[in-house]
Amino acid sequence: MIELLGVKEGKEFEAAQHLRRQILAAWPDIGQSTKDHIKIFVGLKLYGYRLEDIDLVVIGHLSEPRPFDVEFKFFPRDGEPFVPRSAQVKNFILVVEAKSHDATGVRFEDKIASVCYRRGGHTVWESVTEKNRLQMFEFKRYLADHGIERIYVQDLIFFSGLREGDLPHRPHNCFGVDASFERILNVLGQISAPLHHKRDALISFGSDQTFAALRDPAFPLLQSIEPTPLDRRRMDRIIKASLPEAWLDDLGNKQVVIRGRGGVGKTVILLQMAYRAFDRARLRSLMLTYNKALVADMRRTMALLGVPRSIENGGISIDTVHAFIGRLMHGLGIIQDYAGFLEAYEQKKDLLLEYLRSQTVSAGDIAELLKRHPTDFLWDTVFVDEGQDWPANEIEILRAVYGPERIVVADGVDQFIRGSVADWSRGITREQLRARRLTRCLRMKANLALFVADFAAALGLADWDLEPNPDANGGRVMVIEGDLAARPEVYSKLCAEAAELGNYPIDLLACVPPALVVYDGREPFSTPARVLAGQGVKTWDASSIDVRENFPTDREALRIVQYDSCRGLEGWTVINYGFDEFWDYKYRQRLALPRGTDDLFVTAEEEATEFASRWAMIPLTRAMDTLVINISDKPGRVREALEALREKRADFLEWVKL
Questions:
Q1: In this predicted structure, what is the pLDDT of residue 171?
Q2: CA atoms within 13 A on the CB side of 190
Q3: How many CA atoms within 13 Å lie on the side-chain side of 51?
Q4: SS3 content of the chain, % helix, strand, coil (to 5)
Q5: pTM metric for this prediction
Q6: Could you say which of 109, 130, 425, 585 has the lowest number of CB atoms within 10 Å?
Q7: Spatial distance between the Cα atoms of 506 and 273, rounded to a whole number of angstroms
Q8: Distance (Å, rounded) from C-alpha 232 to C-alpha 301?
Q9: Strand-by-strand arrangement of the 255-259 sheet
Q10: CA atoms of 541 and 561, how far apart (whole Å)
Q11: Contacts of 652 (CB under 8 A, 6+ apart)
Q12: How far apart are the first and last CA of the chain?
C-alpha cells in the first residue's frame, strides 16, 4: 500500500505523486499490498523545532526484503566498496527536498548542490545540500524526542527540472526527474551504508519493531497545532491590523523606533509590520530578542499563521540576538565553533566590533557573507524587540551589517535587564530616524490598566503614562496571600473560569521567581509545575532551557516562565507566584551591582527600590482579563502598595488568604 498524506497541492505534492508513480513502476503490486507499507508525508511540519518544514518524508516498511537490480558500486558501513552480487531492501526513511529549478538555476561544487534565487535585488545561491542535511538531523531529533532513537534517516534531493545526465558523477544524494525507483535504491546503496554478507547487500534502516512504532496511527508524524479562540484574536490583530501606510513606507528608508511602556502592544505591532511587509511585498524579515520564551511564543504564532521563512517565499524568522551574533561570527570565520560562546559572549562581541571598526572585517566581507549564507543573513528588514535593553556594541554590530534604514526597534522606555542604556538615535541623523510613541494600553482591560497605574504610583513611579483603553471594559485583580504553589486547586478554578469564556490552559501564563525553581542535578523545574503535574495537569515549564527551545503545541498545557523571561508575553489570566519574593530578588540584585558616578545624589537603597519597582511592572502588564498576584504573609514594599489599593479598587480587586 502507498499512501500520500498531508498537503494536497503545490510542488511538494507534485513531487510526491511523481515518486509514487516511480515506486509503482518498480513494484506494481505494492499499491494493493496489505503487508508492505509506504507512506509519503507531504509538507511535513515539525512544530516547535528550528527547521519546521520538510517537503517530503518517505517511510517504507516491507514484510520481506525486495530485490532490485544493481547499477553502482555500493559503499558499506564496514569494508571496501564493492559491486553486489544481489541487493535487497527491507525498509527506509527518506527526508526529501524537492526543487524545480532548471539547469540555469542549479550549480554543483564538489557535489554540493546550490539553487539560485532573487532576493532584495541580489542573486543569491542557497546550499540545498546543507539545508537538506539539517532537515534530516532535525527530523532525527524529532523522532528521538518521541522515543525512536535507533534508526537511520537518509537525506535526498529531487531535482524535477534536471535529468540524471545533468547531475555530477556519483556517489551523491541527488536524483533527477528520469530516475527510476531502482536508481534511487542504488543511490541508497552508495550513500546509506548498507548491510552486507559477502557480496549480498541489504538496505535496512532499522528494526521491524521500530518501523511498526512509526506506522502506528498514534505516532504524531502528521502533527498539527490547533489555535484557541484567543490565538485567533491575536492572529486577527496581526493580519487585519489597520497600520498606517506611512509606517510601512518607512521600512527600508529610515530606522523606525516604536516607544511605549509594557502593555501598549509593541511586540504585536512589530509582528504586524513584519507580516504586512511579507503579505504586501514578500519581504523577508528577522525578529530578534534576547528572550527565549518570547522567541518560542512568537514562533508559535507564526506557525499558526502559516508564515514561511525561506529565501524563496519570504516570511518571518524569529531568533535570539545571542544566536544571531554567534552565527555572524562563525560565518565570518572569527570563531570556529560555538564551544564556550555564551560564557564569553561579552568578550566575543567586543572582538567582533574591533574587527568591524578596524576594517579587518570589511563591508565587502559582509556582502560576501550575505551571498554565501543567505538563509541566515539575507534579510530585507530586521525587527528588534525590547530594544531598550540592547548594549551599544550590539547596536553598532547590527548597523554594520544592515545599516540603520533596515532596522525597526520596539523601545520599552524603561531599561533594567542587560546592563546598559540603549540609545538608538546615536550615530545617525534626524533624517534617518522615525520615532513613534504609543501610550494607549492595547493588552489589558480597562480595570487592569487602572490598577497597574495605581500600583505604579504606590511604588513611587511618578512617570507611568499608560492610558486605559476605553474600548476594553472589565478586568479583575486577585491578591492571593499564602503558599499558592502548594494549592493546585486554585489554578484549576482559574482555568475553569477562563474555559467558560472559551479559553484553553495555553492561553494562561504563570510567572515564577528563582526561589520557586529547583535544580536537582538534571533539568531545572518550577515548583508549581511539579505540583500541578502530580495532579495530572499538563504544563510547558520554561524553567527548563531545553523546553524553551521549542514552542508549546498542546492547548491543554499551562505556560510557566521565570519572571526574567516574561517580557513580551501575554495571557488571558496571568498568575504571578511569589510576587513579593520577586520584588525582593530584584532589589537584592540591584544592590549587588556596582554603582556609576552619576548616582551620587541617590542612595543605593533608593536606586534598588526603583529598579525592583520598575521590574515589577513588567509581569503586571502581561494579563488581558485576570491578574493574579501571589504574596506571602510577610511585610514589605509590595504588600504595602497592595494594601493601599485594597479599598480604592475593591469593586474589582479580591483579596484571598489561603
A1: 94
A2: 19
A3: 19
A4: 40, 25, 35
A5: 0.79
A6: 109
A7: 25
A8: 10
A9: 309-310, 314-320, 284-289, 381-384, 407-411, 255-259, 433-437
A10: 7
A11: 447, 451, 475, 476, 477
A12: 60
Q: Which three cell numbers stand for residue 360?
A: 579587518
Q: Using alpha carbons only, give the angle 101, 104, 110 rounded to the nearest 5 degrees.
A: 90
- Enumerate the H helices of 146-261 as residue ranges: 181-191, 208-215, 229-239, 245-249
Helix, strand, or coil here: 161? coil
> Cα–chain-centroid distance for residue 62?
37
Residue 72, all three cell numbers: 553502482
Alpha carbon dihedral 299, 300, 303, 308, in 10-degree steps, equals 0
Question: Torsion angle of alpha carbons 341, 343, 346, 347, nearest 10°?
Answer: -70
C-alpha cell at 564: 526574567
Element holding 294 (H helix, E strand): helix 292-305
Q: Which three cell numbers stand for residue 493?
A: 478554578
Enclosing H/E stretch for 97? strand 86-99
**Strand ranges inside 351-465, DSSP E:** 381-384, 407-411, 433-437
To the nearest 10°, the Cα dihedral for 324, 173, 372, 98? -80
Determine the pLDDT at residue 421.
63
Beta-carbon-side half-sphere exposure of residue 498 (alpha carbons within 13 Å): 30
Evaluate the CA torsion angle 183, 184, 186, 187 in order and state its sign.
Answer: positive
130-133 long-range Cβ contacts below 8 angstroms, 24+ apart? 131/97, 131/375, 132/95, 132/97, 132/156, 132/157, 132/173
C-alpha cell at 2: 502507498
How far, in Å, are 457, 612, 649 from residue 579 at the CA level? 18, 11, 19
- The number of CA neighbours under 13 Å toward the Cβ of 161 is 12
Between CA 404 and CA 425 the distance in angstroms is 10
- The pLDDT, as a whole number, for residue 420 is 54
Sign of CA dihedral 165, 167, 169, 171: negative
Residues in contact with 520: Cβ distance below 8 Å, sequence separation at least 6, in sequence order: none
Please enumerate in sequence order all residues whose Cβ is within 8 A of that of 153, keeping only pairs 6 or more positions apart, or say none. Answer: 93, 94, 95, 136, 139, 140, 143, 205
Q: What is the DSSP letter of 337?
A: S
In this prediction, the residues of the chain whose per-residue pLDDT falls under 50 are: 415, 417-418
Instruction: Please give the Cα distance from 347 to 325 (Å, whole number).
Output: 12
Whole-number Å distance between alpha carbons of 642 and 478: 11
Residues 71-93, buried b or exposed e (16+ Cβ, 10 A)?
bbebbbeeeeeeebeebbbbbbb
Residue 67: exposed, middle, or buried by beta-carbon count in 10 A (0-12, 13-18, 19+)?
exposed
Question: How many CA atoms lie less than 13 Å away from 183 in the CB half-sphere?
Answer: 18
* Cα separation, 475 vs 453, whole angstroms: 14
Asked if 35 and 28 touch (Cβ cutoff 8 Å), the reply is: no
Residue 560 and residue 371: Cα distance in Å, rounded? Answer: 40
Are the C-beta atoms of 593 and 418 separated by less than 8 Å? no
Sole residue written with cell 505523486: 17
The helix/strand/coil state of 3 is strand
Among 30, 54, 60, which Cα is nearest to 42's?
54
